[in-house]
């Protein structure tokens, strides 16, 4: 993955996160572009799910590794590591949600941001 000058840092972080998800076979990967939504607190949400808590943790670790390797950045905040049903990695301009499949369906985060531009990605 090559970062060109026209690519914003938040877009690049989201691409690194997606790569980390794909490395661990995350499912139903989407990126919500929230930059044109006035009430948004971040540029992008990246969302995926996995069938087990073990895989949820592995995906979150892979995302952190990819971003740290490229940018030497740690998440500003991490939530949900204890039970790994919904891990949130907050990089300020990019917030990544890694759900266990049943929890993603229950919370429906994408539905809360219906105005966002949504792009889907293939699992690796």
From TrEMBL:
Keywords: Cytoplasm, Repressor, Translation regulation. InterPro entries: Iojap/RsfS/C7orf30, NT_sf. It is found in: Cytoplasm. Pfam families: RsfS. It comes from the Bacteria. Its main location: cytoplasm. Functions as a ribosomal silencing factor. Interacts with ribosomal protein uL14 (rplN), blocking formation of intersubunit bridge B8. Prevents association of the 30S and 50S ribosomal subunits and the formation of functional ribosomes, thus repressing translation. Interacts with ribosomal protein uL14 (rplN). HAMAP family: Iojap_RsfS. Belongs to the Iojap/RsfS family. NCBIfam families: rsfS_iojap_ybeB. This is Ribosomal silencing factor RsfS. The gene is rsfS.
């Amino acid at each position: 993955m090559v970062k060109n000058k026209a690519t914003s840092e938040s877009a690049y972080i989201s691409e690194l996160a997606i790569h980390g998800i794909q490395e661990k076979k995350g499912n139903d990967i989407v990126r919500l572009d929230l930059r044109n939504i006035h009430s948004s607190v971040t540029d992008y949400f990246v969302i995926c799910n996995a069938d087990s808590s073990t895989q949820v943790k592995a995906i979150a670790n892979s995302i952190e590794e990819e971003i740290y390797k490229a940018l030497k950045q740690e998440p500003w905040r991490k939530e949900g590591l204890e039970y790994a049903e919904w891990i949130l990695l907050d990089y300020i301009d990019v917030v990544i949600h890694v759900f266990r499949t049943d929890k993603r369906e229950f919370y429906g985060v994408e539905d809360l941001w219906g105005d966002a531009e949504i792009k889907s990605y293939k699992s690796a």
